[in-house]
Amino acid sequence: QVDVAAMVWLFGYVDVTDTGFIVAVLSIAFNPLFWNVVARWEHKTRALSQIFGSPHAACYCLGVAILVLNCVRSHCFTEAMKSQPKLESWDCLWTYYTGLAISAVGTLFVISSFLALGFTGTFLGDYFGILMEEKVTSFPFSILDNPMYWGSTAIYLGWSLMHASPAGLLLTAVVAISYTIAVLYEG
């Protein structure tokens, strides 16, 4: 038997029909769908490599597109969070610093993943035929599978706590679900 009291409580603070909230959910869901569809299309057709003249140029262009989409997603997330009510009992230094610490750990995972993989390793170079010499097993991959995804999720969780935002917590759950689906699809 599942206790849904926490979800009922959370939904009491979140207007899921708010346009900004809906846009945030759509942008969160769109990003991994976009990069997985485009990467698989490239792997199958090599169309982007032909258009851009090389696999490296195509991978870099896709990487820039993903970065721009992530900026849009983060903006939509923040705007949706700001348009919804705060949880006053969480609007305190303890919650703020907890969120800051969680965001810092998430940032560590994201940056260290990028440094370990490089640009083409991070942005789906394998789908472009740009393969690494061996599987990366150093930190953070030595302690966590998909550290970039879970680091990004931690950043959003921390951001939500820093803003005492129930809407942010719900959007963070959407991020986690989207990445879970992406991991299943990519695997």
From TrEMBL:
One of its GO terms (molecular function) is phosphatidylethanolamine N-methyltransferase activity. It is a multi-pass membrane protein. The keyword Methyltransferase applies. GO terms for cellular component: endoplasmic reticulum membrane. Its main location: endoplasmic reticulum. It catalyses: 1,2-di-(9Z,12Z,15Z-octadecatrienoyl)-sn-glycero-3-phosphoethanolamine + S-adenosyl-L-methionine = 1,2-di-(9Z,12Z,15Z-octadecatrienoyl)-sn-glycero-3-phospho-N-methylethanolamine + S-adenosyl-L-homocysteine + H(+); 1-hexadecanoyl-2-(4Z,7Z,10Z,13Z,16Z,19Z-docosahexaenoyl)-sn-glycero-3-phospho-N-methylethanolamine + S-adenosyl-L-methionine = 1-hexadecanoyl-2-(4Z,7Z,10Z,13Z,16Z,19Z-docosahexaenoyl)-sn-glycero-3-phospho-N,N-dimethylethanolamine + S-adenosyl-L-homocysteine + H(+); 1,2-di-(9Z,12Z,15Z-octadecatrienoyl)-sn-glycero-3-phospho-N-methylethanolamine + S-adenosyl-L-methionine = 1,2-di-(9Z,12Z,15Z-octadecatrienoyl)-sn-glycero-3-phospho-N,N-dimethylethanolamine + S-adenosyl-L-homocysteine + H(+); 1,2-di-(9Z,12Z-octadecadienoyl)-sn-glycero-3-phospho-N,N-dimethylethanolamine + S-adenosyl-L-methionine = 1,2-di-(9Z,12Z-octadecadienoyl)-sn-glycero-3-phosphocholine + S-adenosyl-L-homocysteine + H(+). Pathway: Phospholipid metabolism; phosphatidylcholine biosynthesis; Lipid metabolism. It is found in: Endoplasmic reticulum membrane. Its EC number is 2.1.1.17, 2.1.1.71. The chain crosses the membrane at residues 7-30, 50-72, 93-119, 166-185. One of its GO terms (biological process) is methylation. Keywords: Endoplasmic reticulum, Lipid biosynthesis, Lipid metabolism, Membrane, Methyltransferase, Mitochondrion, Phospholipid biosynthesis, Phospholipid metabolism, S-adenosyl-L-methionine, Transferase, Transmembrane, Transmembrane helix. Gene3D superfamilies: 1.20.120.1630. InterPro entries: PEMT/MFAP, Phopholipid_MeTrfase. PANTHER family: PHOSPHATIDYLETHANOLAMINE N-METHYLTRANSFERASE. This is Phosphatidylethanolamine N-methyltransferase.
